[in-house]
Structures are given as structure tokens and as C-alpha cells.
């Protein structure tokens, strides 16, 4: 899919030449095509066969790359970066902790694969895929991933933005409770506020679809509404 997407960003008069170069690249790269496609696109740009705008668009919107962790990308357990402070949630893929990033002095959420799932290679790969998918979906309404690491116990974990707020489920429940009690919702839950809360979700999903990703569990429980207007779509596993 990446090869076809790349050609869409090449000027029509250069597509034949790029097609030949691309065929050679695919033959040489083999299974590593997706991992190396950005470098190939950069090489095309250096040769004048791909504009700066085309390079930026391709690297921003092309399909995601997923795979196993190899020796070069395997996170190290030496000097674990994030401190786990308190358990704040549990799910099918693991546990979520309130954490701290000491060098940057920021609060984060750390999702750690649970011990039982870590024993199953297929489930562990799903956890890795979740981290890779979420990290590559760079959008204001999609929770950002800060890093992947292996803890001292050998378990994998990834850190992401911590959002202090409520789920969209709770937001809707609070709105209904206010309307039932007073006949109207306050400013934070007004029709205008509800529309402004929902629009970022639509934009995030449209962006994900552009990247070839479908959120298969989109529901109010997987949407966080922050205390200061943040709206984040979560759980892309």
C-alpha cells in the first residue's frame, strides 16, 4: 500500500522513473519495505523526484507500519524512565498507572502489559501493535504516546498523555442529570459545548481513516473529556 501511496505524490512526468526505482527498492528491501519506505522517499526528494510538499504529505498520511521489535528497536530495561505512582485502571491489554517522567517533570499515564498476557506471544504482539498504532496517529484528539520501554521485571510498557477528566459516558450522564434536575444544562454541558466536544472525535476518526486505521471499539467509554477542553480518543488496540 505504501508504494501506491508514494506514487500518488510524484509528478505524473516522473512516475515512470520512480516506478522503476520503486520496483528495485521493493526487491532489495523485501520484508523491510514498510520500515524503510520513508528513507526511500527522502532519497527521491534528494534526487528531485519528489517535492518537499510531497515528502511531507507522504510521511504524514501514509499507512502505518507495524511489526515485531528487533534488536535495534528493543527497549532497554536499564534506567527505566517512568516511575509508577498508582494504579488507575485495568483492561484486557494490561494495567494503566499514573506515572511520572522525572527528566521532564511531567505526569504521564503508563500502560503495562499484564504478566499473563506477556506469556502469550500473539497477545504481546497485539500490545506492541497498539503502542505502534497509537504513536503513529499524530492528531490533537488522539492520545499521544511518549515512549516504549521494558521494565526491570522484563514487562513491556508505554507512556502516554495523562488526562484529568471524565469519559464521554460520564459527560453525557452529567448532562442528562442537570437537564432532569433543572431543565437545562450549565455552560460546560450546553448544546454548544457538547457539539464542540464531539467535533474533535469526528476529526480524529477521519484522520485515522486517512491513515488506513479503523477504531474497532469506538464508544463513549473510550473518549476522554478533560477539565480544560481536551478531547482524546483512547484505546486504539
Dominant shape: globular
Quaternary assembly = single chain
Note the run of SSEs as H and E. HHHHEEEHHEEEHHEE
Reported for the largest beta sheet, the result is: 5 strands, antiparallel
Kindly list the characteristics that best describe this protein.
8 helices, alpha+beta, five-stranded antiparallel sheet, three-stranded antiparallel sheet
List the helices and strands and how they pair.
Layout: H1 2-8, H2 15-29, H3 33-46, H4 52-61, E1 83-91, E2 94-101, E3 106-112, H5 115-118, H6 121-136, E4 145-150, E5 156-161, E6 165-167, H7 168-182, H8 191-210, E7 223-226, E8 231-233
Helix pairs in contact: 2-3, 3-4
Please explain how this structure is put together.
The chain is built from eight helices and eight strands, in the order H-H-H-H-E-E-E-H-H-E-E-E-H-H-E-E. The longest helix has 20 residues, at 191-210. The chain has helices at residues 2-8, 15-29, 33-46, 52-61, 115-118, 121-136, 168-182, 191-210, and strands spanning 83-91, 94-101, 106-112, 145-150, 156-161, 165-167, 223-226, 231-233. 43% of the residues lie in helices and 19% in strands. The strands form two sheets. Strands 1-2-3-5-4 form a five-stranded antiparallel β-sheet, with helices on one face. It has 237 residues and is α+β, with helices and mostly antiparallel strands. The protein is globular.
Amino acid at each position: 500500500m505504501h508504494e501506491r501511496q508514494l506514487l500518488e505524490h510524484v509528478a505524473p512526468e516522473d512516475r515512470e522513473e520512480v516506478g522503476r526505482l520503486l520496483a528495485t527498492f521493493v526487491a532489495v528491501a523485501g520484508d523491510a519495505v514498510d520500515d524503510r519506505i520513508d528513507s526511500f522517499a527522502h532519497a527521491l526528494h534528494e534526487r528531485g523526484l519528489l517535492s518537499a510538499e510531497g515528502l511531507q504529505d507522504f510521511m504524514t498520511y501514509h499507512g502505518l507500519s507495524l511489526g515485531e521489535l528487533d534488536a535495534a528497536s528493543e527497549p532497554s530495561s536499564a534506567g527505566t524512565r517512568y516511575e509508577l505512582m498508582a494504579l488507575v485502571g485495568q483492561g484486557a491489554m494490561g494495567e494503566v498507572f499514573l506515572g511520572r517522567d522525572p527528566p521532564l517533570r511531567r505526569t504521564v499515564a503508563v500502560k503495562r502489559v499484564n504478566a499473563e498476557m506477556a506469556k502469550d506471544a500473539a497477545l504481546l504482539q497485539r500490545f506492541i501493535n497498539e503502542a505502534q498504532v497509537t504513536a503513529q496517529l499524530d492528531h490533537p484528539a488522539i492520545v499521544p504516546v511518549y515512549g516504549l520501554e521494558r521494565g526491570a521485571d522484563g514487562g513491556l510498557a508505554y507512556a502516554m498523555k495523562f488526562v484529568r477528566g471524565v469519559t464521554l459516558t460520564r459527560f453525557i450522564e452529567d448532562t442528562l442529570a442537570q437537564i432532569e434536575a433543572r431543565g437545562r444544562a450549565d455552560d460546560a454541558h450546553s448544546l454548544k459545548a457538547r457539539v464542540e466536544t464531539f467535533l474533535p472525535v469526528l476529526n480524529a476518526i477521519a484522520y485515522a481513516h486517512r491513515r488506513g486505521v479503523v477504531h474497532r471499539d469506538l464508544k463513549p467509554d473510550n473518549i476522554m473529556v478533560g477539565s480544560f477542553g481536551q478531547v482524546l480518543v483512547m484505546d486504539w488496540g
